[in-house]
Amino acid sequence: MKDVFKAVTITDHVYWVGAIDWNIRDFHGYTTRRGSTYNAYLVMADKVTLVDTVKAPFMDEMWSRIASIVDPSKISYIISNHSEMDHSGSLPGVLEKIHPEKVFASSMGAKTLRDLMPVQGEIVVVKDGETVRLGDAHITFFETRMLHWPDSMFSYLHEDRLLFSQDAFGMHLATSERFDDEIDPSILEFEGATYYANILLPHSPLVLKLLDRVGTLGYRFDCIAPDHGPVWRTDINGVLDRYARWAQQKPTKKALVVYDTMWHSTEHMAQAITEGLLSEGISVRHLSLAVNHRSDVAYEILNAGALITGAPTLNNNLFPSVADVLTYLKGLRPVNLIGAAFGSYGWSGESVSQVESILREMGVEIVCEAVKVRHMPDGEFLTRCYALGVDVAKRLNERVT
Ligand code: FEO
């Protein structure tokens, strides 16, 4: 297998030498139904430079792609833009095989690489705004802390006007195509938004600052080359605009009704709430956790205005699937949401107050009293659920014009 993989030309100096992970379906808790890629890039300058590596099990694939262009022992420099293991996992293996003159990383990158893996030799720390010459080409580094880890940085190859952006502007999407203009735009929009919601959402204020900075650099971008998914060479303004939109998290007249159920009581309540929302013209995503993954809920929350959450009580506690999704969403720190809680119980009924408490911790503004029913909701309780949907809808219609 080792000689079957080939590099793909990206620009005059740059080749894609990454790996395609067709079969990954879980990326630290985020469901990746279309797989992913780990993009590494080879810059064929006087100083042959490898930008990032791939997840450790894919090292032979990367090596084969590099060898299709150049003897890997000719690599002089390695740049580690991001030390998370999907991009650094092969670095120790690479350094065992070859002995580049220098490995470059940010100060946090150098520390993190040392913490995570045995890296032979010195790591040269580069500063924000520093430029390194590769002989006939030069690269400038920009720290992008917390996008997606504290170590993260961008690298800009001036000669090809190409930005290596590591996780930013990427997506989990395994394809045979390497460029944005070769892929259905609706897939790029969906997978890009899903990636943003599940990976970058908590860091949205920093994304907005970064976009401002990118705009003031005075650089032209002919290509943006992320570490996952396609290289942007056509819709560059589009991806920058989408990032600005997602980072602003402007609420729309869209509500999520997120719930799970044991014996259909909470489900019936969710249906009544959904009907109440619909009666006021709200767009609803009715998301049973029996059939929707937490990362699907994260995608939907990106432009939502309301989050209404329901749970049965199980053994005096919150139903596990609802606890799971609320824990996940809380970490993603969505903003600008109103909401309410509901649920059913048989013995004690702790779940509803627990849901409401977590929603408040998330910063969700609770806009109406929770509805809690013992056993199966009758007509009166379903009417109260319907009214809850109407009340949330009216508040949402007031907030979003
Ligand atoms: Fe693709 Fe933050 O790693």
Task: Sum up the structure in keywords.
single chain, 401 residues, alpha/beta, Metallo-beta-lactamase, Chain A, Rossmann fold, 2 domains, seven-stranded mixed beta sheet, six-stranded parallel beta sheet, 12 helices, 24 strands, 35% helix, binds MU-OXO-diiron
Sheet with the most strands: spatial strand order: 1-2-7-8-9-10-11
Which kinds of small molecule does this entry bind, naming each only once?
Answer: MU-OXO-diiron
Helix content: 25-40%
- The total strand number stands at 24
Query: How many individual domains?
Result: 2
What is the CATH superfamily of the largest domain?
Answer: Ribonuclease Z/Hydroxyacylglutathione hydrolase-like
**Span from first to last CA?**
58 Å
Structure description:
- 35% of the residues lie in helices and 23% in strands.
- The protein has 2 domains: 241 residues, Metallo-beta-lactamase, Chain A (4-Layer Sandwich), CATH 3.60.15.10; 141 residues, 3-Layer(aba) Sandwich (Rossmann fold), CATH 3.40.50.360.
- The protein is of the alpha/beta class.
- A 7-stranded mixed β-sheet has the order 1-2-7-8-9-10-11. Strands 17, 18, 19, 22, 23 and 24 form a 6-stranded parallel β-sheet that branches. A 5-stranded mixed β-sheet has the order 12-13-14-15-16, with no helix packed on it.
- The termini are far apart.
- It is built from 12 helices and 24 strands.
- It binds MU-OXO-diiron.
- MU-OXO-diiron binds next to helix 2.
